[in-house]
C-alpha cells in the first residue's frame, strides 16, 4: 500500500485547527466580493502566492491571517466556513476534530457574538449529522487583547457555554505571556471549560511561557509546545503528567520539508503525547490532514507504526466522550492490523 493510501485510509483526529484558517481561496475570494472587503488578491494563485511568510513566521502569518478573517461578516459566512471544513474532515477520514475559533477578531469589527456562534453551531450540528464526523468547539482568546476583553468574550459566550468544550489562547505571543490571562482561565476552569493554550515555536521566553501554562493557567494541553525539548525538567513533566502537545508539521511554499519534522519524532520516541495537526490548512502549503501527514511519513522516513502512534495520541488527547474515543481507537487498531497483514 502506498504511503498516500495508508494515511488516507487511517482514522485520524485533529486537535489544533483554527476555523478562520480553513477558508479555501475560492471561498475567501467569494466572501470578499460579497462583503466588499479589499484583500488585494484577484485570483486563487494570488492567494497562494501571499502565503510564503518570511521569518519570523508567526507575526507575518498573523498579519495575513487577520487580513483574511475580515471577509467573515454575516452569520451565514461563519456557517458556510464551518460546513465546508467539516466536509473536508470527512474527506480526509478525520473522525474527530476540535475546532478553535477566535471571536475577538470578529467582535472588534462589530460582528455580534450570539448570531455568529448560533449559526456556526447549527452548521456544525448539521454537518456532523450529514458526514458522521464528530466536532467540538474551542473558543480562543487572541492574546494581544486585554485581560478585560478576554473576560468580556467569556461573558458573551456564557449563554452558549454548554455548546463550547474548551478555552484556548492564540495569536501574537511576543509580550503577551500566558499569565496575562490567569483570571480568565481560572473562571473558565470553574465553569467547566477544558483548557489549552498556544506556546508557539521560536518565541521569546518559550520555556517560561510553557511553565506558566502549566503552573498559572493549569492547562491540560499545549498547542505546539515544541520548546519543552529545551528543558529536561519540562520534558519529564509533560511525559509524567500526560500533557498533550498538539504540534503542527505545516510548511510554507519555500520550506524544504515539513517544519518540526524531526522534533515530532523526537517527542514521540520520548513517549510524549504528541499529535500532528494542520493549524490553518488553507493558509499553509501543507494543506489538509491526509496531504500533510503523508508528507511527514514520506519525508521523515517514518514507519507505519509511528504514524499510527501519532494518530492514537490525537484520539487519546481529545476531549470527546471516552466511549467514542475507545471506538475510534479500536477502529485505528483494526486498520493498522489490516494494513500490516496486507503487506506481509
Ligand atoms: Zn494554532
What do you see in this structure?
- This protein has 344 residues and is of the alpha/beta class.
- The chain has helices at 3-9, 25-35, 44-49, 57-68, 75-91, 104-107, 113-131, 147-157, 182-190, 206-217, 232-240, 261-269, 289-300, 304-317, 322-343; strands spanning 12-18, 94-101, 134-142, 166-170, 194-199, 221-224, 244-248, 273-277.
- The chain has an eight-stranded parallel sheet with strand order 1-2-3-4-5-6-7-8.
- The longest helix has 22 residues, at 322-343.
- It binds zinc ion.
- Residues 16, 18, 170, 198, 223, 279 line the site of zinc ion.
Q: Topology, please?
A:
Blueprint (H helix, E strand, L loop, with lengths): L2 H7 L2 E7 L6 H11 L8 H6 L7 H12 L6 H17 L2 E8 L2 H4 L5 H19 L2 E9 L4 H11 L8 E5 L11 H9 L3 E6 L6 H12 L3 E4 L7 H9 L3 E5 L12 H9 L3 E5 L11 H12 L3 H14 L4 H22 L1
Parallel strand pairs: 1-2, 2-3, 3-4, 4-5, 5-6, 6-7, 7-8
